[in-house]
Amino acid sequence: MVGIVSDPLFMNHDTGGYHPEAPMRVHSIHTVFAGKDPGIRMVEPVRADSDEIALNHDRSHIERVRRASVPGRLVGLDPDTVSSEDSFETALYAVGSLIRLVQMAVAGEIESGFASLRPPGHHATASEAMGFCLFNNVAIAAKKAIACLGVEKVMIIDFDVHHGNGTQDSFYDSRRVLYFSSHQYPFYPGTGRLQEAGGRKAQGYTVNCPLRSGKTDGEMLALYRSVLVPIIHAFRPGLILVSAGFDAHAMDPIGGMQLTSAGFAALAALIRDEARDVQSPVVYALEGGYNLDALRDSVRAVTDVLKGGEAPGIQEKPFAELDGIIAAHARFWTL
C-alpha cells in the first residue's frame, strides 16, 4: 500500500504571478490521484508544531518565517524565496504531513509514501530560507524518526537537479543519517562537490555525486547502481527518505539534464527493490520540478512503481565522470 498526501491546501503558499515554484505544481500532481485506486491510501494533511520544526531549525528562523507571512503582500526572504499570508501555515502542513507518512511507514501501515508538498525544503538551512524553501521537510522528518519513532539510521536520497545544501548541512557530522545526492554541478547553490564527504567524525556519510549537464536515464541509472546500491546494503537504513525533485527532466525549464519520466520510474524501482532487501520503508517528498506536464507524468510513473509496477527497460550507460565518483566514495565504502 502506498500512502499519498495530495491536497489543494498546498496551493495556499502564494509565490506571485511569475515564480516557477507556483501553486499549479501541486494542482497538476493532484490530478494523478483524482480517481479511486486500491493500491493507494490517501492521507489527510497534518500540521506540525513549532517544536517539530525546531528539531532542525533555530527558533529565530521559525519566528522570521512566521513574521514574513503578512496579509496582502509578498515578503522576500532571499532573492529567490518569498512568503505570503498563508505561507507559514502551509509550510507547517508540509512538514507535518511528511512526518505523518513517515510514522505510518515505520509502523507498517504503508510500505511507501509520496508527499506532494510545497513549499519544498532541501535548500533551507537551520537559520535561513533559500532556494524556494522555508523549512527543510526531509531533514525534520529524519530527525523526528530518530528522536521519536525508534529508527536507528536514516538514508536520504536526493535526485533533485540542485544540490540539497540545507540537508547536507543538517547531517554533515552525523553517522546516523546518510545523505546521498546526485545533482548538476556547477549549478545553484554551488555546494555538493565530490570532496564534501562529511565532517571529521562522519567521513563517507555525505555522498555527493556532482554531474555535468546533459545526463540521460541510462547514465543516471548506472550511477545509482554503481554507488547507491552497495551503500544501501552496507549502511542498512531503517528508513529511506527521498527528496524527489523532478527538475532533472529534459523538459524542465530550469535544469540542464535529459532524464525522462521513465527514467525517474527506473530510479524509483531501483530504490524500491534495494529498500525491500534491507527491509526499509521509503517515503518521498516533493522538491523541484517546474514543467507541469513533466512533473505530473513523472509523479505518476514513480507512483506506479511504488504500487509494484515493473521497472522501465532502460539500459545502464557508463559515462566519463563515473569512474572518478566511484573512486572518491570507494575510500569509505566497498563499491
What is the SS-derived class?
alpha/beta
Shape: globular
Rounded to the nearest angstrom, the distance between the terminal CA atoms is: 32 Å
Mean pLDDT: 98
- Tell me the name of the CATH class: Alpha Beta
The ordered string of helix (H) and strand (E) elements is: EHEHHEEHEHEHEEHEHEHH
Number of helices: 10
Largest sheet: 8 strands, parallel
Strand order of the largest sheet: 2-1-5-10-9-6-7-8
Rg over C-alpha atoms, rounded to the nearest angstrom:
18 Å
Can you offer a commentary on this structure?
The mean pLDDT is 98. The chain has a single domain (2-329), classed as Histone deacetylase domain (Arginase, Chain A, 3-Layer(aba) Sandwich). The chain has helices at 24-30, 50-53, 59-67, 87-106, 137-148, 165-171, 217-235, 261-277, 292-306, 322-329, and strands spanning 2-5, 40-42, 75-78, 81-83, 112-115, 154-158, 177-184, 206-211, 239-244, 282-286. The chain is built from ten helices and ten strands. It is of the alpha/beta class. Helix 4 packs across helix 5 (137-148), helix 7 (217-235) runs parallel beside helix 8 (261-277) and helix 8 (261-277) runs parallel beside helix 9. The radius of gyration is 18 Å and the shape is globular. Helix 1 (24-30) links the parallel strand 1 and strand 2 (40-42). It has an eight-stranded parallel beta sheet, sandwiched between helices.
List keywords for this structure.
single chain, 335 residues, alpha/beta, Arginase, Chain A, two-stranded antiparallel sheet, 10 helices, 35% helix
